[in-house]
Amino acid sequence: MTLRFDLERHHHLAGAIHARAWLTMREQFGLAPNTLDAYARAVDSYLAFIEPRVHDCEASTQSDVAGWINESRARGLANSTLIQRVTALRLFFEYLVEEGLRPGNPVSRGGAFRCCGTTVFRTAGPIRRMHKLPWIPTDEEWERLLRATSEDSIRDRAMLALAYDGALRREELCSIMVSDFDFARKLLTIRAETTKNRSGKVVPYSLATSALLGRYLNRRRTMRCEPDAVFLSESPRNRMMPITSYTWTKVVERMALRSEIPHLTTHTMRHLRLTDLARAGLDMHHIATLAGHRVLQSTLIYIHLSARDLTDALARTMGSLAAPRHPSLGPEE
After folding, report:
1. What's the predicted TM-score (pTM) here?
2. Which of 23, 49, 158, 294 is most buried, judged by most C-beta within 10 A?
3. By 3-state DSSP, what share of the chain in percent is helix, strand and coil, each rounded to 5?
4. CA 91, CA 70: separation in Å to the nearest integer?
5. Among the listed residues 314, 311, 291, the one whose alpha carbon sits nearest the alpha carbon of residue 301
6. From the CB of residue 268, how many other CB atoms can be counted at a distance below 10 Å?
7. Domains annotated on the chain, with CATH
8. Tens digits of per-residue pLDDT, 78-100?
């Protein structure tokens, strides 16, 4: 079986038999390719850290894990990335314990409940999660982006529009097939195998996006290419091959540079679309369906970004609070 994780990039995995066996097992269980690669990076990073100290993971201790976490934090890893890496390492150690290769797991499970008599405590994990609101552009920044991309290829503009309308993740956008469209109803089916949580969904797109897609597909019909992949590479090396997530990331990076919006990423269109829907007052359950969220807690981020609930609540209560709390103007002096 061909491994999806790159042993040339993660070269410490080459000599780690148990790590490769665990990653291969996760792949066979259907782990998403991007998640598999992230797990490979995490284990490879840990193996690189412990190499001068111990010979293998079977002899690792909590002190080794703590040192690796501190070293990763010192290198400036984002909080979410660090949590993902710690999770991957914990799952790997669980595998070693289940296989009888070590006595216990040196990575504690955060959020588990511990009982002491009649009292229940919530245990802390090795990394405290920081819940940051995602960045979204202002109206002026978005208009600047549209102006900067007005002369871009019809493919890039169609992808930008569709990414916004459908609140699509990068992999979902790049994996679209012609057969996924219902052009008459302006609906797009996102296949389960392309989504983060392996749940399919159907999303609408606008009349303006439909016009961009129509122009792009008319041009695409003149090309000799794969019959079903919609968005194709325009580079000389991979011309007419399906566009990759890496290529789309580079396209958006160039858009960000030209429009002078440094925080723009492939995920920005998704964040902005969901926030706009929250601002418009769409029901949170409908927003969650469009986003493909399994739990509403994930959708609440966009309610916070829109400040919809806070604004409505303040509007209802400010009148009654103002009179007793504000000082009187009194007579003019």
Report:
1. 0.71
2. 23
3. 55, 5, 40
4. 19
5. 291
6. 23
7. 11-109 (1.10.150.130), 139-309 (1.10.443.10)
8. 888 999 999 999 999 999 999 99
